[in-house]
Amino acid sequence: MNSAAELAALPTVLTAVFLVSGAAITLIGSLGLLRLHSFYERVHAPTLGTTLGTTFIAIASMIYFSALGKRPVLHELLIIFLVVTTTPIGLMILVNAALVRDKFESDGASRRKARDEHPDVL
Amino acid sequence: MRRLVPFPVLSVSLLGFWLLLNQTLSPGHILLGGVVALIGGWALAALKPPKARPRRLDRILLLAVLIFVDIVKSNIAVARIILGAKRKERTAGFMKIPLLLRDPYGLAALACIITSTPGTLWVDFNEASGILTIHVLDLTEEAGWVDLIKGRYERRLMEIFT
Amino acid sequence: MSTMLAWSVTTAQILLGCAMACATFRLLRGPRAQDRVVGFDSLYVNAMLLLLASGIRTGSTLYFEAALIIALLGFVSTVALAKFLLRGEVIE
Asked: Whole-model pTM?
């Protein structure tokens, strides 16, 4: 905390810019969860935070700790790698699950409707 | 050598991860990471995955740069859609694209590329007919999306995974 | 820590807090189970980014490890939840 006082100007500015822009992109992505109107539209929203949002904040963290420790600190690359490779997998399984559930529900609804209209057949 | 290190790329990346995680290049950690990398390679060999033969490192790097540019572009496009008030001009929906790519690793890479790009989402791939279903947030020009996926990604992935 | 950096970290933390609130709203409100899982997915990513920002505030790398663990466990739980929605059981 005390050693941060003598941080040079350039890393400070870069950290601040990357940090705030990353957070803003993530917020826009999460706002999409509120503003978009159907499930399949909303699935697109988190990908803003997991691609550019995560990358920018991780870069800010790398710049800051590298300047603070006066040696390259690169382990935030692991977070970028993990998040970028894992989120698509989760979202794909989730979309498949939503499709299956939608199909199941519409099948159930049509079956109920048929039963209501022709109670003697079923 | 083949038996000792069945998956050299995987082993080298595991060693790289280990060194990144520990923030060091000391010989002790290189040794420890090497052991982890060897065991990881053997564990994967026990699962007997189908062989992947990615070729042409230059093409892979070029594709990575292209993907990064596309991700930045579509981030801006999706942010504009979310913040914009006019949502009547936009229709979201599913679309179908016939693919020629059959390599399982190529398809997996394409799935990750499409899903992690904001605005497009991999939904389903029918292996028998080779038809890919994707969900697009902004479906104003369908031909543009077909161009993007077939011309930009599929062609390059077919070059990499022959 | 210079005032500019302190302000930018505070701004980023507030923005990420709002993002977490949006995700929590979707998590609580639904309307359907898959909407809640999307909200959860977004929530853990935002929490992880908030931890990284907190790490910059305190100058401690301990937060990085917490963020890494959240990223790993969040992925596993999203997949488990999605798998549960798909089949009604996690392990077949």
From this structure: 0.86
